[in-house]
TrEMBL record:
Processing and modification events after translation: Transiently phosphorylated on a His residue during the reaction cycle. Phosphorylation strongly increases the affinity for substrates and increases the rate of nicotinate D-ribonucleotide production. Dephosphorylation regenerates the low-affinity form of the enzyme, leading to product release.
GO biological process, one term: NAD+ biosynthetic process via the salvage pathway
Ranges of residues in domain Nicotinate/nicotinamide phosphoribosyltransferase: 136-323
Name used for this protein in its record: Nicotinate phosphoribosyltransferase
GO-annotated cellular components: cytosol
E.C. code: 6.3.4.21
Pfam families: NAPRTase, NAPRTase_N
Domain Nicotinate phosphoribosyltransferase N-terminal: 1-114
Matching InterPro entries: Aldolase_TIM, N/Namide_PRibTrfase, NAPRTase_N, Nic_PRibTrfase-Fam, Nic_PRibTrfase_pncB, Nicotinate_pribotase-like_C
Family per similarity comment: Belongs to the NAPRTase family.
Taxon lineage: Bacteria, Bacillati, Actinomycetota, Actinomycetes, Mycobacteriales
């Protein structure tokens, strides 16, 4: 497309592209925008070096290679702040620049937002299901090595307490948490192997450590854990079996052994439904892996990137089941006086409607003239965490239900000038 547009002179036409989801993933009532900060970081350094140009020379002409050799994004980007909730049709991101600049960014942008948003949206459901109990992201061994780092950040953004992924800590400052594996217990052979393993771990990590007690028999494991660390043991972890039943048994045993402050961590193929099923059990925190890093049934957010305006004139797609609304858009969210949100309104950019009730504009400037104009890095991640928590509190109570149903709030589109269609 770039080569053809450069050849026929359309590459420089001013365009607006929009990122949105035609629908939420099946059964979801809301989504959480994530990936904004990672996209902005990537945009700052997005260019084509000699190695890339040499590869592209296999099928691109000299003029296109020359364009890419000098590529730097100089346009504008608007969008929802990271951590904001979104719904079907929400204009999550809008890119305004020449056609050439916009089209080069498509895969970079969609790959980041579709992945990170899917993880954050799943994580937010798990946070709600956990009902204020901490969650640890433990899915690095269940996904691509680079996706694991991004997933840990997205989970933390959505409210997880931390991750077992050290690279996510180094790159993004996500707190690191974790426990030992069964292999460490199995390493210590002999009749008292488990007790020896626990004593070794306590000697190295202190009594605040978490001991994995289900390698053999859970009851014996708990007894060995308290013998090794004393009643001040930080926590025990259960990774298999009937977790609700075992949690009650372990809590009773710990209390009888005087370890009344020792916490119980559970893990083992948990998703939001499994977490919700443990609400009545004496569980203090959860370790979540596979379901989280694969989006818990929705591995991509379903975002698309569509051309909506050319030289100030709206354009839109009319393909069956894949229509798009033309023109640059912004959005606001209407709430009750109590703060509960009731409607999202999408309107032509610069023409906010009159609404009935308090409202908040969602669309903000992210990039101007190629320069990022919002806070990025650790401060941005902290703000996004707060934004997710605030957004979840603002949902109507039925919007937090895990059961399949309608989106938490309706979305209303105020049409602008129709413009030509494609």
């Amino acid at each position: 497309m770039l080569a053809a547009a450069l050849r026929d002179g359309t590459a420089g036409r001013r365009t607006s592209f929009e990122v949105f989801a035609r629908r939420l993933p099946e059964g979801r009532r809301y989504g959480v925008v994530a990936g904004t900060d990672r996209f902005l970081a990537a945009l700052r350094t997005f260019s084509f070096d000699d190695a890339a140009l040499n590869l592209l020379s296999e099928f691109l002409d000299a003029d296109t290679l020359g364009y890419l050799a000098d590529f730097r994004f100089r346009g504008d980007v608007d969008g929802y702040p990271e951590g904001e909730l979104y719904f079907a049709g929400s204009p999550v991101l809008s890119v305004h620049a020449s056609f050439a600049e916009c089209i080069v960014l498509e895969t970079l942008l969609l790959s980041i937002f579709n992945h990170d948003t899917a993880i954050a949206s799943a994580a937010a459901r798990m946070v709600s299901a956990a009902d204020d109990r901490p969650l640890i992201e433990m899915g690095s061994r269940r996904t691509h090595e680079q996706a694991a780092v991004a997933a840990a950040r997205a989970a933390y953004l959505a409210g997880f307490a931390g991750t077992s992924n050290l690279e996510a800590h180094r790159r993004f400052g996500v707190p690191v948490l974790g426990t030992s594996a069964h292999a460490f217990t199995l390493l210590h052979t002999g009749a008292d192997g488990e007790l020896a393993a626990f004593r070794a771990q306590v000697a190295a990590q202190g009594v605040d450590t978490t001991l994995l007690v289900d390698t053999y028999d859970v009851t014996t494991g708990v007894a060995n854990a308290v013998e090794a660390a004393g009643p001040g043991l930080g926590a025990v972890r259960i990774d298999s079996g009937e977790l609700a039943v075992l949690a009650h048994q372990v809590r009773d045993q710990l209390d009888r052994l005087g370890a009344t402050a020792t916490k119980i961590v559970v893990s083992g193929d948990l998703d939001e439904y499994g977490i919700a099923a443990l609400r009545a059990a004496p569980v203090d925190s959860y370790g979540v892996g596979t379901a989280l890093v694969t989006g818990s049934g929705a591995p991509a957010a379903g975002f698309v990137y569509k051309l909506v305006e050319v030289d100030g004139v709206p354009v839109h797609k009319r393909s069956a089941a894949k229509t798009s609304a033309g023109g640059r858009k912004q959005a606001l969210r209407v709430s009750r006086r109590s703060g509960t949100i009731v409607e999202e309104v999408i309107y032509p950019a610069g023409r906010p409607p009159q609404v009935d009730g308090p409202d908040r504009v969602l669309t903000v400037a992210l990039v101007r003239g190629g320069d990022v104009v919002v806070t990025t890095g650790p401060d941005a991640l902290a703000a996004a965490r707060d934004r997710v928590a605030s957004g979840l509190r603002s949902l109507p109570w039925e919007g937090l239900k895990l059961a399949h149903g309608e989106p938490a709030i309706p979305t209303r589109l105020i049409p602008g000038d129709p413009g030509p269609s494609a």
